[in-house]
Amino acid sequence: MSAKVTSTTARKVIGSLGVIGAAAAVAGMGTFGAFTDSSTPVATTISSGTVSIDLTQPSPIAFNASGLVPGDTVTRPMTLKNDGNTPLSTVSLTSTATVGSVLTTDTTNGLQLAVKACPTAYVQGGTTLAPTFTCASGERTVLTGPAVTMNALNNPNSLTPGGTDYLAVSFTLPASADNGFQNKSATLSLVFTGTQRTAGTR
């Protein structure tokens, strides 16, 4: 009985060694080399654009006014420049009332906003209390509407990188304003926003 058991065990060991040997032979078939070739490197540089607009107020006169009566207008010059390196699809102005009143809630008889553009800087005249700003030639209106608004400027120069818009921003109290507009005040925030050009294939 002991001899039979020993003999059976010996056959199992030999059979196992045969299986291991076959597996090693199959694994060895995947170790052969292969010819390859590679192209020379192609230098590729890709960078993203910069969208940036800068607003300055060349005049030291603050954009504040008091004592307006129907028909009065207050105007201040501003310079808007595209100082980024990519074209813009739009340049818009958002005017919001941080402190409002009937001056800003009445869109017909309340304050009205107008933005004009000149090819060159506006020339200041008048007095310190009542300044005037004149365009030598080529003045055009790029935005009009109620004091609280969000609209794109009409074809501004600042759509192009390096482009500059010399602007005159005005608020007018219409002649139609009645006694309900007396002794009212409002505070407005003006923000110009440049939006990138339409994306495409480059």
Radius of gyration: 38 Å
Cα distance, first to last residue?
86 Å
Whole-number average pLDDT? 85
The shape is elongated
**Helix share bin:** 10-25%
CATH topology of the largest domain: Jelly Rolls
Query: H/E series, N to C?
Result: HEEEHEEEEEEE
The total number of structural domains is 2
Major sheet: arrangement of strands: 1-2-9-4-7
Q: Runs with pLDDT <50, length 5+? A: 1-20
Count of individual beta strands? 10
| CATH architecture classification name of the largest domain | Sandwich
Short description:
The chain is of the alpha+beta class and 202 residues long.
Task: Describe it.
With 202 residues, the chain is an alpha+beta fold. The protein folds into two domains: 28 residues; 144 residues, Jelly Rolls, CATH 2.60.120. The chain is built from two helices and ten strands. The protein has a five-stranded antiparallel sheet, with no helix packed on it. It has a three-stranded antiparallel sheet with strand order 8-3-10, with no helix packed on it. The protein has a two-stranded antiparallel ribbon with strand order 5-6. Strand 5 and strand 6 form a beta hairpin. The chain is elongated.
